[in-house]
Give the backbone structure.
Amino acid sequence: MMIKLKTVTVNKYKSIQQSQIVYIEPDITTVVGMNESGKTSFLTAIAKTNYFNSDEDFKFDITQDYPRNELIDFQHEEEDCDIINCTYSISDELLKEIEHEFGKGVFNVKEFTYTVRYKSETTSFTGLKADTKKFLELEVNDGYTLSKATKDAIIACKDLKDVADIVGTEEDEDLSVLKTKIKKLVDEGYKFTNSLTGYIAKAWIDPKMPKFWYFDDYYPLKGKININELHNNPPTDEKDKTSKALFELARINPKEILDSTEEEYEKYIALLEASSNKITNEIFKYWTTNQNLDIEFKIQNIKNKQNQPEKVLDIRVKSQRHKITLPLDRRSKGFNWFFSFIIWFSKIQADKNSDYILLLDEPGLNLHASAQADLMKFFEDLSKKYQIIYTTHSPFMVDTEHLNRVRTCFETDNGTIISDTIQEKDPNTLFPLQAALGYDIAQNLFVSNNNLLVEGPADLIYLTLLSSLLEANKRVGLKQEFTIVPVGGLDKVSTFISLLRGSKLNVVCMLDTFTDQKGKQKVDDLVRYKIIKEKNLHFFDEFASNGNKTADIEDLFTKKDYLKIFNAAFKDDYDKVNLKDLDKDLETILKQINKVIGVKRFNHYRPASKLNQMGVDISFFDEATLGNFENMFKEINKHIK
């Protein structure tokens, strides 16, 4: 972009009652706030400064826009009021182009401000300044035949318009040519105090200023477009505007369809479908929710209420999977929004002569969280060419890797406040940020590309500690690519598998043998429905040395090793448990200990925690214990992606 928006200062516009400056990022700016907090007012104020087409909805109006509680007093005052000041930066590329026309050192301004007022019909530029003296010095020495006295007189002019008063002599053969050129600059520029600045502003700055394009939730296409009404009546609402944009994209005048024969319909259908294919391909770069959809167009002849013939464009969405079609407006609101957005966006993409800033009000409001993530990727790609300012109250539309882009918007007794600082006094505004950060932390702390699901925190301690001891002694431990995820009990295993699988992550399970048939059935169902591969499910009985079909992680230790840990953990609670006390007919060491100490279930976490505190080395364990854990790690490591 030749010119980029840097800051916006809005004052006395709808719910914005006091002047405030908002810094705009060079790529994406996110305005987070509750409904009715003033986010839309902020976007529309910006849009009205330079909207991309002539639209009555995007023109400032004192009655509609000035804060109502002060409107009567303001209308009877002589003083005017700045609605908005937009400060822009000028690219080096544009400065070089200006330099190429006027010469080096004539115009070196890096930024300027564009102001719109309520009562004044003209807008104004501030901060622009051209060096008239430097320009005239370069100009008079650019091959013109002029006397030295005349050159000096021209260079001494305070403004370009003063050159017209230079009389000259017979030696000044090119004086009239120079005067004609300079008069053209004066006449064709804005009426600034400095005529050269006025010309540069009008010829170079104004045309290069980015146009604003606003899009919100009210622009989705209708499922059926009445072509007669579209041709005969100007667009009355946003849906009509989107319908018109569809025909413009296909380069079809609705009148052409109305005047055509039925045989000619195919030509127009082909043009519409060509546009639709382009749009559909663009959508499915980012729409991963359902890629089995196609757009179809049909032109139908109908009779209106007065029994007069009319033509209707029927837009239908076909599901390749289910082989059915539905009207566009009966598909999900999210898909309709995305489709309509691309149509509108294609309209501005077709304009190769202008830069644009995209103003998106609550984009993707009806999209699923994963589709909102797709939309964020789309925005990242668009931001390479366009500045984007969007509003949201969804945590899934907040990029936690770029919190510098976030501005908070909230309502106070003094009107809307937009801030780049986090306002602790407004927790409702902060909620999307808190939720986004919480989700991000959960994703990054507890899961990775390769996840090993275990039952609880005791398993996490045993696996981490034994893996470290084995690796420290040049043996095989659990590879660091794995993140161990305690799920909080066997009954939650199936839920966690489904959640992590939905994120397309590699999931491996290392579980106690199921004794609860209900939990086993849930996991078996996940295998049957191909949510997890059966080979990714492992149970401790595969590696335990107790010889039984049932085992917990504690059965990977020899009984002697585990009793050392148990007795250390519960020395103040129970008498020492010895090997000879255990009932060998019971399958697991845990059941055997429960019987000895006379409880239904002791706290399994305490031995794990105690072992972690003991600071043991590898000599603490029997070779059988070390071998069981090492064999298990070798098997798990095979699943790394």
